[in-house]
Amino acid sequence: MARSVGERIATARGSEVVSSRPLSGGCVGQVALVVLASGEQLVAKSGGTALDTEGWMLRVLAERSRLPVPEVYVSDPDLLVMGYIPGETGCRPEAETHAAELLADLHGVTAGSFGFERDTLIGGLRQPNEPANEAGSYWIGFFRERRLLYMAGECVRAGRAPGALLDRVRALAERLPELIDEPEAPALLHGDLWGGNILSAGGRVTGFIDPAVYYGHPEIELAFTTLLSTFSPEFYEAYASRRPIRDGFFETRRDLYNLYPLLVHTRLFGGAYLAQAEQTLSRFGV
Q1: Number of domains in the chain
Q2: What CATH number is associated with residue 191?
Q3: Residues known to be catalytic
């Protein structure tokens, strides 16, 4: 850890840094477990950009939901210091019922429009959240303009995908009214929910980290959890007992919603994720 980072942490917490060691995780900056002379343990992210946005998102979840998230002590563009949360990365099978309770509760937190009061981040990438309100299709318009078309364009601009990808996404976007519908209300989402962003221990979820928050359709959150096999079938049964999952989600809509995280991963990494995104487009006939 750079000396200047240690000094900033010591100033913020009133105790000197006595040790630090690298932790894995995240696409932005370096992550370290920091121990202070007081015995306090912290997690520090440094060297990235817009870490203040990540800190802001964690505070939003702490204020508006009962998700367990790290307490934020420093939230600067180049340094994020959080309380340490014990637990193993990933949701252990015995913790899945607790995870279902927490996420069903999170999705019960609603707002008047889709998007958010400011843009957020996903994997370090800008996630635009300005509402796209069109008569009778508020969510459909938002998902089309702010998620699919925006991220497909970013993939092409970054040289991660050919221009034909954007044309195919446009063709699919025109068909969205046939494929998805409007939820009852815009629901608060973690936004980047996979095993690497969940901590669990003792049969409970101890923390959710690295959010990409906005108000959207709960189905896009559930879909992403299936993309990387975050949970077992028991999770979805427990979730559905609290918030019903409509027919057709697993058969059709989850693949459509997972096109967005596949585009995010294509923009970040290219390669196999582009192939998966193209397979999804082919499945829907474009």
Answers
A1: 2
A2: 3.90.1200.10
A3: 192
